[in-house]
Structure formats: structure tokens, C-alpha cells
């Protein structure tokens, strides 16, 4: 690939300038890549330091979910008689209202 800046590819000076130009371009790209790698390394370090805290929060949430699940599974076993009692009271109340409306 020949750049427009160096149309005469066969002269020694132009080849040296072309190589120098390409070397500078590659050096700048390598410097950019180094900066990116350093940023990625810093981000990984920050995430690794935060990981135990996230693990503690995750364990706490799992415990809360397990406790809620146990509570929900025990709920029908504990309060079924109350549910039936409320259902009977509601039925009696509705029957009484209908009786008063019909009368």
C-alpha cells in the first residue's frame, strides 16, 4: 500500500520516510493499546476488591429469599382455619344483605 504522501516508492529517502511514518503510526497505536490494557487492568482490580462485598450481599439476599419461601409454604398450614372462618362470615354477611334486599 502506497500513501499519497510518498508517490515515489522506489527512492531510498522516500522509503526511509515512509518506514519512519509507518513506525510512528504503529508506535502511537501501541501506546493507545497500552493505555487500554492499563484501564482494563485497573477495572479488574477494582472489581476483584469489590467481589467479597458482592458475595456477602448475594448470600444475604439468598437467605432472605429462603426465609420468605419458608414463610409462604408454612402460611397455608398455619392460617387455613382463619381463611375458612372469614369465608363463612363473608357468606353469612352476603346472605344477610340479600335477605334484607329481598324482604
Automatic annotation (TrEMBL):
Species this chain originates from: Rotaria socialis
Residue stretches making up the T-SNARE coiled-coil homology domain: 23-75
Protein name per Swiss-Prot or TrEMBL: t-SNARE coiled-coil homology domain-containing protein
UniProt KW keywords: Membrane, Transmembrane, Transmembrane helix
Transmembrane segments annotated in the record for this chain: 83-102
Domain of life of the organism encoding this protein: Eukaryota
Amino acid at each position: 500500500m502506497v500513501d499519497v504522501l510518498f508517490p515515489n516508492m522506489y527512492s531510498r529517502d522516500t522509503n526511509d520516510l515512509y518506514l519512519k511514518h509507518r513506525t510512528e503510526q504503529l508506535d502511537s497505536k501501541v501506546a493507545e493499546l497500552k493505555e487500554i490494557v492499563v484501564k482494563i487492568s485497573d477495572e479488574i482490580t477494582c472489581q476483584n476488591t469489590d467481589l467479597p462485598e458482592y458475595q456477602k450481599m448475594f448470600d444475604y439476599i439468598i437467605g432472605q429469599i429462603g426465609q420468605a419461601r419458608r414463610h409462604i409454604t408454612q402460611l397455608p398450614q398455619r392460617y387455613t382455619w382463619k381463611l375458612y372462618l372469614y369465608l363463612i362470615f363473608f357468606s353469612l354477611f352476603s346472605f344477610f344483605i340479600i335477605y334484607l334486599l329481598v324482604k
